[in-house]
Write a structure and sequence with these properties.
four-stranded antiparallel beta sheet, alpha+beta, 22 strands, about 400 residues, Adenine-n6-DNA-methyltransferase TaqI, Chain A, domain 2, elongated, 7 helices
Length: about 400
């Protein structure tokens, strides 16, 4: 959908802002919002979710027994995540990495929020590892100032349009989740039931596994792999050189660095040892390492009985390893515990190869569909940002 421009424009005198409608004023953000500093929350912290939210530059992260402000506010990052303003209403507490604001009488709070999202933060933030914004720079940011009535019209328009775009983004996100679930379900069936729907079945003797093809072998993982954990060598960050090398450095959930040396030059299946990762299932638990690489002491190194590595990685990925995690301070999956877990597998290398080929095909199709969905999300997000920028700077006339 295209929108009309205003009948007449004037120069704003600001390069990033360009021309603005002739009847708009040019002011500062402080003419819309009074910026206030957050405070330390330690003395008021609460574990009760019914208490008041405590918000930092990365969003809400805990609760408080008291509140710092009650009302409509636009929150602006002071340190850390500085380019993600938030709109809140009600009672809340902000910490010292987040400014809160009081919406001034001449300002519409929602318009002020949308205007804050397009601040060119890179022009103001400090050039450090942890970006920061000063209260002075934010308050004096040059800001177009339409009338209160027009601010409200722009805010109403953007609330409606961004809600529509957000709904489309949510649909794409649900599609991605469904595609991942479908992929895992199909692969799980392939590595536990095989590809032949008419194959005779037998009871595996393992509750979670149920029936498996009658000709399959049911045995502990250590019967299908050789463990090479003795060759793991952890490196401290300073020992990794702090630079981008040629060879991947693997940890519990994949590549965590690139270094200038390697200890393996044969493909293996790596399995996470990190109990926290296995309990939360926050990333893949098994994956294939190829080429030349280094492995630290947070991933088990498994050499399977054949070269069908994707097949074997998926056999392990399908397991619930969390029930085998031990230790409280530093929970982990020991090599002994991993090796004793019972799995089922075809004794035929050819059948395992066919299952691997099916996995590869499913992966290819799923990745293509997920990429299309992510591309759609990116387009929607670009459209959303462009629409907000055009409306709050007067490039389009949405008063109707």
């Amino acid at each position: 959908m295209s929108f009309p421009a205003y009948p007449e424009y004037k120069g704003s005198g600001v390069e990033w802002l360009g021309d603005v409608p002739v009847h708009w004023q040019i002011g500062r953000l402080k003419h819309l919002l009074r910026i206030q500093g957050g405070q330390d929350y330690k003395e008021v912290e609460s574990v009760e979710p019914t208490s008041y939210p405590v918000i930092g530059s990365g969003g809400q992260f805990t609760y408080a027994t008291d509140y710092l402000y009650d009302g409509e506010s636009v929150l602006l990052g002071r340190k850390g995540t500085i380019d993600k303003p938030l709109y809140v209403k009600g009672k809340f507490w902000t910490v010292d990495t987040m400014f809160y604001t009081e919406v001034l009488p001449r300002a519409n709070g929602r318009y002020a929020y949308y205007a804050a999202t397009i601040i060119p933060f890179s022009l103001y933030s400090t050039n450090t590892a942890l970006p920061s914004m000063s209260q002075f720079d934010l308050a004096n940011h040059i800001q177009p100032l339409p009338s209160y009535k027009e601010q409200a019209q722009i805010a109403t328009f953007l609330d409606h349009e961004t809600a529509r775009i957000d709904a489309l983004i949510a649909e794409q996100q649900r599609l991605i989740a469904l595609l991942k679930e479908k992929r895992q379900a199909v692969i799980s069936h392939a590595v536990t039931k095989g590809l032949d729907p008419d194959a005779p079945m037998k009871d595996s003797g393992v509750e979670w596994l149920g029936e498996v093809p009658a000709h399959w072998v049911v045995a502990p993982i250590k019967m299908f792999f050789r463990f090479l954990d003795g060759r793991r060598i952890p490196l401290k960050a300073e020992d990794r050189g702090g630079r981008q090398g040629e060879f991947p450095y693997y940890g519990a959930s994949g590549v965590i660095d690139w270094i200038d040396d390697f200890i393996f030059e044969k493909d293996h299946v790596l399995v996470s040892e990190d109990g926290a990762n296995l309990l939360a299932r926050s990333s893949p638990i098994s994956f294939v390492a190829r080429g030349r690489y280094w492995v630290n002491n947070h991933a088990h190194i498994l050499e399977p009985i054949d070269d069908n590595l994707e097949y074997w990685a998926e056999v392990i990925e399908d397991l619930d390893l969390s029930i085998h995690v031990t230790g409280s301070a530093q929970p982990k999956l020991t090599s002994e515990a991993l090796g004793s877990i019972v799995v089922a597998s075809s004794p035929s290398p050819d059948e395992r190869l066919k299952i691997q080929e099916r996995i590869t095909k499913i992966d290819k199709v799923t990745k293509e569909l997920i990429k299309e969905a992510f591309d759609g999300i990116n387009l929607f997000q670009e459209r959303r940002s462009a629409l907000i920028s055009a409306a709050v700077t007067g490039k389009i006339d949405v008063r109707g």
